[in-house]
């Protein structure tokens, strides 16, 4: 059967001497694997369609399993992301995270739009850490692990923001009266808590330019990393690279 789908390349790997297999996050069909014959050849007309982060329209034959590319057209190459080390690192993390969370053929419209918005925001030079933290929140929510940030996850009572801690293990905020349920719960500033709540409500497609103080960004990064590690438990190569960038202040 012949399919036509808008998709973003979230993974590209060599296959045999001259071919590549790409994994697409598509708007219509979720995550799809497509074989691109001859993509590694110098004069291949499809080589550009296999580059990571490429957004295009793909036409492929597929019965079950892997499809085979017939034709395609690039809508947005995102070559700026591949040419900048920092942008490429964050974009790779966004793609790898989605690849690991999204199951094959799982309905992909929401995932597709959030990834597309993430890559566009990175290309527009918006703060990459804020973009990725917001993207992580959307991933958690779409995967069914969105944190409870309005009321205490234990007693279900609204408390003053000053009395709230974040419990990555329990998946939400915990008031000081219930802290004994998770002693390692993280104390956060009121500013960081408000940002987390904003992230929970905000669609990435509506993100404008955000100016966040360095100390708030550091706190936000620690909270989101803890939530991601505890709720999803993924070990990603791209995350290790981002950690190395932080270590050496790149």
TrEMBL record:
Give UniProt keywords alphabetically.
DNA damage, DNA recombination, DNA repair
- Statement: the UniProt record of this protein carries the keyword Lipoprotein: no
A GO cellular component annotation in the UniProt record: bacterial nucleoid
Specify the DNA replication/recombination mediator RecO N-terminal domain's residue ranges. 1-77
| Gene Ontology BP, a term | double-strand break repair
**A Pfam family it matches:** RecO_N
Can the keyword Oxidoreductase be found in this entry's annotation? no
InterPro entries in UniProt = ARFGAP/RecO (IPR037278), DNA_rep/recomb_RecO_N (IPR022572), NA-bd_OB-fold (IPR012340), RecO (IPR003717), RecO_C (IPR042242)
Per the entry, what this protein does is: Involved in DNA repair and RecF pathway recombination.
Task: Provide the family line.
Answer: Belongs to the RecO family.
Q: Which HAMAP family match?
A: RecO (MF_00201)
Name under which the protein is recorded: DNA repair protein RecO
């Amino acid at each position: 059967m012949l399919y036509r789908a808008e998709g973003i390349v979230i993974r590209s790997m060599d296959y045999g001497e001259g071919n590549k297999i790409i994994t697409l996050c598509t708007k219509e069909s979720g995550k799809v694997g497509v074989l691109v014959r001859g993509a590694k050849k110098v004069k291949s007309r499809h080589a550009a369609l296999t580059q990571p982060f490429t957004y295009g329209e793909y036409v492929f034959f597929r019965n079950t399993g892997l499809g085979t590319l017939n034709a395609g057209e690039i809508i947005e190459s995102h070559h700026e992301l591949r040419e900048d080390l920092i942008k490429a690192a964050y974009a790779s993390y966004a793609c790898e995270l989605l690849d690991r969370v999204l199951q094959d053929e799982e309905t992909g419209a929401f995932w597709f739009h959030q990834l597309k918005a993430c890559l566009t925001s990175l290309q527009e030079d918006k703060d990459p850490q804020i973009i990725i933290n917001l993207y992580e929140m959307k991933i958690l929510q779409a995967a069914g692990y969105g944190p409870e940030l309005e009321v205490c996850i234990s007693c279900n009572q609204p408390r003053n923001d000053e009395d709230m801690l974040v419990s990555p293990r329990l998946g939400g905020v915990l008031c000081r009266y219930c802290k004994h349920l998770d002693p390692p719960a993280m104390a956060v500033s009121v500013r960081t808590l408000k940002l987390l709540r904003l992230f929970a409500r905000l669609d990435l497609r509506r993100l404008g330019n955000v100016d966040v103080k360095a100390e708030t960004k550091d706190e936000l990064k620690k909270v989101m990393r803890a939530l991601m590690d505890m709720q999803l438990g993924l070990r990603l190569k791209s995350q290790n690279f981002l950690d190395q960038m932080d270590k050496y202040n790149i």
